[in-house]
Amino acid sequence: MIEQAIFQLADRGATDPGMMVVSGPSGYGKSVAAAWAKARHRAYYLQLDDFVTRKSLLVQLCLVLGLSVDGKPPKGTIQHLAERVAAQLHQARRPLIIDEFDFAIDKNLVMAVFSIYEMSRASIILIGEEAMPAKLQKWEKFDGRVLDTLYAEPVSLEDARRLARAKNAQLPLADDLLAHLVKIARGSVRRVSNNLRKIFETGAAEGWDHCDLARWGDRPLQQADVKRRAS
C-alpha cells in the first residue's frame, strides 16, 4: 500500500495534489510496509511521537533529510528551518513518509506540514490510524491537497503463509493452524507474527518437523481484543 502511494504520487499531473494518506488499525503492517518502501524507493522516513512540537518536527526533518552539521541539526528560526527542509525536499525529489501522523493532528501541526508541502511541492505520504482521514477533513485546505486515501487491508491466509516461510522455512505449518492465527488476530499482521514466533520457538524446543492445529492444541496464543477492535 505504501508503494502504491509512491507510484500514484510519481504519476500525478503537474496540477494534481501531492500528498497521500494511508490509514488503518494498529498492527495492520503500515509501518513495516513503510520501512520496506523507504529502502526500495530511497524515501525519507520520519516517525512522530507524543512529544512532537513545531520546532522538534522541523529539527527531526532536518536530521532525516541529511541537513545536519557534525551530527547536529542546523540552527535558526522556525521559518529558516522550514525553508531549509522545503528546499531539500524540492531539490531531492524523493518522497517523504511521515508515520504516526495522528500525533501531528493531536498537536495541531497539520498546517505546518501543509506549509512544507506548499513550499516544496514534494510527494508526502502520511500514515495513521483508521480515523485519521475523517480528522483531516477539519482542515479543508489541507484535505484538498490529498491526492488519494488508501486503507490498510487485514492480514490474510496468504499473508500468514508468506510470513511463516520468511520466519522459518524449515518448520512447515499447516493451513488449518495458519487460518486459526488469522482468525484470532482479527486483521493484525503483528499478532500473526507474534504467534508465529511463539510456535517456531515451541517447535524448536520440542523437535517438531511440522505443526498443524491439532499438534498445537490448546497452548496459549495472543488474541486481538474483540471489544477494542469493534470500538
Written description of the protein model:
Helix 3 runs parallel beside helix 4 (78-92), helix 9 (157-167) crosses helix 11 and helix 10 packs across helix 11. It contains 13 helices and 5 strands. It has helices spanning 2-10, 30-41, 54-64, 78-92, 102-106, 110-120, 132-136, 140-143, 157-167, 175-185, 189-206, 213-216, 226-230, and strands at residues 19-23, 44-47, 96-99, 124-128, 146-151. The mean pLDDT is 93. It has 2 domains: 1-151, P-loop containing nucleotide triphosphate hydrolases (Rossmann fold), CATH 3.40.50.300; 157-216, Helicase, Ruva Protein, domain 3 (Orthogonal Bundle). With 231 residues, it is α/β, with parallel strands linked by helices. 52% of the residues lie in helices and 10% in strands.
Write down the Rg.
21 Å
Which strand order do you get reading across the main beta sheet?
2-3-4-1-5
Question: Looking at CATH, which topology of the largest domain would you report?
Answer: Rossmann fold
Oligomer: single chain
CATH architecture of the largest domain: 3-Layer(aba) Sandwich
Largest sheet: 5 strands, parallel
In DSSP terms, counting alpha (H) and pi (I) runs of 4 or more, how many helices?
13
Return residue spans where pLDDT drops below 50 for at least 5 consecutive residues: none
CATH level 1 class label of the largest domain:
Alpha Beta
User: Roughly how many Å apart are the termini?
Assistant: 24 Å
Q: How many discrete structural domains? A: 2
What structural category arises from helix and sheet content? Answer: alpha/beta
Q: What is the residue-averaged pLDDT? A: 93
Helix content: 40-55%
- Helix-strand pattern: HEHEHHEHHEHHEHHHHH
- What is the strand tally? 5
| Proportion of residues in extended strands | 5-15%
Protein name: ATP-binding protein
Domain ORC1/DEAH AAA+ ATPase: 16-130
Pfam family, one: AAA_22
GO molecular function: ATP binding; ATP hydrolysis activity
